[in-house]
Amino acid sequence: MLQNSDLKIHYDKLDTPFLFVNKPIFFNNLTRLRTEIEGLKCELRPHFKTLRALESTPYLLPKKSSPITVSTMKEAEALASAGYRDIIYAVGIAASKLPRVANLLSKGIEIKVILDSVEQANLLNDFSINNHCAISALIEIDCDGHRGGITPDDPTLVKIAQLLDRGAACFQGILTHAGESYQCFDQASLRAAAQNEVDAAVNAARHLRATDIICNIVSIGSTPTAHSYQNLDGITEVRAGVYGFFDLVMTGIGVCTTHDIAASVVTTVIGHNKERGSLFIDAGWMALSSDRGTASQPKDCGYGLLTDSAGKVLDNLQVTTVNQEHGIIEAVDGSNINFDNFPIGCRLHVLPNHACATASMHQHYHVFDIQTNTYDVWTRVQGW
Amino acid sequence: MLQNSDLKIHYDKLDTPFLFVNKPIFFNNLTRLRTEIEGLKCELRPHFKTLRALESTPYLLPKKSSPITVSTMKEAEALASAGYRDIIYAVGIAASKLPRVANLLSKGIEIKVILDSVEQANLLNDFSINNHCAISALIEIDCDGHRGGITPDDPTLVKIAQLLDRGAACFQGILTHAGESYQCFDQASLRAAAQNEVDAAVNAARHLRATDIICNIVSIGSTPTAHSYQNLDGITEVRAGVYGFFDLVMTGIGVCTTHDIAASVVTTVIGHNKERGSLFIDAGWMALSSDRGTASQPKDCGYGLLTDSAGKVLDNLQVTTVNQEHGIIEAVDGSNINFDNFPIGCRLHVLPNHACATASMHQHYHVFDIQTNTYDVWTRVQGW
């Protein structure tokens, strides 16, 4: 792919292992979903948790006022410093995080937290009074039994919203996440999960509005369901994260193909195991992560599938074992790998099980754009 | 533990999740092994791959001339910049790493690489000639069929050593690693693995010396075998890495107890799942890693066991599920957790499956010493 290009110089100079991003594919993934969601007359609120690199935001978000989701206050603070204002911190709020939330509020950042308990509502009200602020909050709805949240018909939903409405905090709406959709492997079940997610959110909003509670935000989303909605009436926004890079878990679920996977780990073949007909590579779990997301899928991809440096998927090869700094590639059918095809020193790309996990092992992403002949380095915002 | 101490102020001020190091326990672990190995009249060459923090080196190594092992050139360069000189880069050498090796050699750093093939030997000789240097190399010996390396009786061993001896590179000796020892769960099998490791190395050295090849270094080691040697005659040094922190995998193997685990992830209880009688915590795989090293052990510890903030192990609790930024704690016996004992906002420590993996998810370690009443922050050397 980079064969006859200035980019090859950059590619060759980098030590392996490194995280490679194919920018046209990345851009395609972003455009595809934004077009689908906006085509359904809804807003997209991407999740920053996969990318966590500020250099990605101009591609992710059309404007500084565009909405975004985060999984840590660290991401929120980084985005705020880059001028982004509309942020949902989408992990159940804990007291220890509130000073940082209040700090961003005081700077005019519209940060919203999520909760699913009376205790948390009281916490937010008390904190708001004591710190002369008004913490904005969404109630998390449980749409499929996967995680936290209140089921739409649970009377606690109205109780919590009323507590917030009547207290010093500020109730902004509801949010749900179809965590069970990761167990879907065909279009029909994906569409059902997507519809279920919509219905649960719409029902929750209806219950609230029936008691005259204003429900501004009705937020739903997961990458599998985000690509499977047929109607978004009653929904104000859709969230999704891993779709920018995609990965083998998403491929297994069926919302993309391996050709849509924009992030891969470039590795060098460092040895041949003649007895086992396997290859040693210099990418171990430090470069790939230990994530085995495909282990519970119909097609288990080990620690990753391989492509050559031109991006062509090498069927029948998988990373089967990882130590800290090296891995082993074996043939899926148990045959001996033809070492002539994979000489020591040649480079391969490992497609990740779970892009969020693999990207988290890298401080920098090496972003190549063969269409514009540009090479960029993106720096990951790490930590909490 | 930090109850009546100035340290509590630091502890309480830190946002969770964070990596907590109990320095007296850490120091104990280091002292224990060094005393054992030096008591057997041998040298200890710790592995830096677990800690990867320069602030740890004064505890790890008595002098700047003390020997150390690394898993990446990044670690080697960091140690060299801190004045350490005697380094083994213990992952099978690849061509792409050699310029960095040569760079350190030119600065007088005694860095040694490892290899197990004729191709690599030729590579080292050619590079040495072409770059006017003499790459020092050890041949990796396969002592237990676990990984790479040449078996002691394989004639290729002598062939490779002779190639190096007669070429521009510099043959320094042999190195082995008892990778299969991680499958040992009792003292007898650990001792057998340790003895086997010694025998393999001694045999390999003997074969070489029988052909008049000088074998200066005879290097063996893994944390399990390092704690199980009865005699080290013929061995010049022992390597081990995770023993500084220890972890649940090492506890399962039997070389330590949970009381010896010096590194843990501090997390906050952020929610109660009343239906399932489980706790939500703010530590997910981003804080813990996805490593499930105990999954194949007699006692599977899920994603980690728990202690209270005083360090007392909470039997019957495990982290059973992790998402990116939150985790779920459940009772091992399936009972409902008594929420009164774990109120929202309370802190727990997660003991890691695999300390090398968990530490790798953190940019900083928070090191508490209740004996000297000191608190330090160590910074991890990340990347490649």
UniProtKB/TrEMBL annotation, chains A, B:
<dbReference type="InterPro" id="IPR029066">
    <property type="entry name" value="PLP-binding_barrel"/>
</dbReference>
<dbReference type="InterPro" id="IPR042208">
    <property type="entry name" value="D-ser_dehydrat-like_sf"/>
</dbReference>
<dbReference type="Pfam" id="PF01168">
    <property type="entry name" value="Ala_racemase_N"/>
</dbReference>
<dbReference type="InterPro" id="IPR051466">
    <property type="entry name" value="D-amino_acid_metab_enzyme"/>
</dbReference>
<protein>
    <submittedName>
        <fullName>DSD1 family PLP-dependent enzyme</fullName>
    </submittedName>
</protein>
<keyword id="KW-0456">Lyase</keyword>
<dbReference type="GO" id="GO:0036088">
    <property type="term" value="P:D-serine catabolic process"/>
</dbReference>
<comment type="similarity">
    <text>Belongs to the DSD1 family.</text>
</comment>
<dbReference type="InterPro" id="IPR001608">
    <property type="entry name" value="Ala_racemase_N"/>
</dbReference>
<dbReference type="GO" id="GO:0008721">
    <property type="term" value="F:D-serine ammonia-lyase activity"/>
</dbReference>
<feature type="domain" description="D-serine dehydratase-like">
    <location>
        <begin position="262"/>
        <end position="369"/>
    </location>
</feature>
<dbReference type="Pfam" id="PF14031">
    <property type="entry name" value="D-ser_dehydrat"/>
</dbReference>
<dbReference type="InterPro" id="IPR026956">
    <property type="entry name" value="D-ser_dehydrat-like_dom"/>
</dbReference>
